[in-house]
Specification:
By secondary structure, the chain is an alpha/beta fold. The chain has helices spanning 16-23, 70-73, 89-107, 110-118, 142-153, 180-185, 206-211, 229-238, 278-294, and strands at residues 3-7, 28-31, 42-45, 61-64, 83-84, 134-138, 157-162, 172-175, 189-192, 216-220, 241-246, 266-268. The protein starts with a strand and ends in a 14-residue tail after the last helix. The chain binds NADPH dihydro-nicotinamide-adenine-dinucleotide phosphate and oxalic acid.
Length: 308
Amino acid sequence: MTCIALISQSANLGYFAPLVQAVAPEFEVVVWPDPGFREADVAMCWNAPAGVYTQMPRLRLVHSIAAGVDNVVAGQDLRGLPVCRVVDPKLADGMVQYVLWSVLHFHRRFDVALANQRQRVWQRPLQTPAGECRVGLMGLGKLGGAIARSLLGLGYAVNGWSRSAHAIEGMAMYSGAEAFDDFLGATDVLVCVLPLTEATRGILGRRTFDALPRGAAVVNCGRGEHLVAADLLAALDSGQLRGAVLDVFSSEPLPAEDPLWQAPGVIVTPHMATMASSAVVAQQVVDNVRRLDAGEPLLNVVDMHRGY
Ligand code: NDP
Ligand code: OXD
């Protein structure tokens, strides 16, 4: 019998067991660290403990329960195993909503209005058309592409940056490291929806902030490790950056003593930008396990050479 192990060192993934068994009663499900995980064929993971796959000699597939796979593959010996992730249009919808809210916060100067409210100041902040607000999207994959199309539909000026070029009508495209500075120079609100890889770790740091126009804002919905927090705080302090909306952190939950909680101009949200429904995740994993058993091509396979 094919066995799926639910594995996470930071969350109890036990809630997936009934969801998987509701759609696939033929599979056995175990929850790590139950010793049965060692006999599993499939690891269904979020934040997998180091070296866990090496304790699973029958393992045939590593499946993230999320869109990102960084915390499922980092520091692991994958020995050529396929790694799959979740791709879901509703996940993209949630991210579009979160980014739209963040862009509106800066474009319509709600940050200024809220600061004024705290001082009982009645003053209309400058209002400008959407077309004068240049949103720079880092990452144009399943999520970034959906964000670009929605913002363009609302009249925003959208610049996209990714490894390879993507043609999205109305969007200005910048691709590769050589175009990064031009992209940044034309960006008022910088939005990161990149995956975390060795090439993108720390990309939201001083060099990037310095290349933005003075007074630009940053929105990070990728991973906490994209951000160099000390550089962000310095850029806010100097006025190079006007504010930041941060949804992801290198340590989650964000520790109570972290200066980001109280930094002026920073909005902290608890990794809530978007999330696939657990039933959708369970169904996608089950579909892939059935494909695995039938020797059919898997869906949403990660290219481990690129790292995403
Ligand atoms: P995709 O793999 O579909 O897209 C990734 C995009 O990033 C692609 O456009 C890719 O370029 C680009 N990219 C990757 N590496 C580089 C690089 N070195 N330089 C420039 N561009 C690069 O991922 P998704 O859109 O599905 O998800 C993106 C990330 O969003 C996830 O990995 C996860 O970290 C995060 N996320 C956060 C959530 C939250 O709630 N905060 C929820 C869901 C996801 P190219 O197109 O050329 O390949
Ligand atoms: C994801 C996430 O990657 O929730 O899906 O961050």
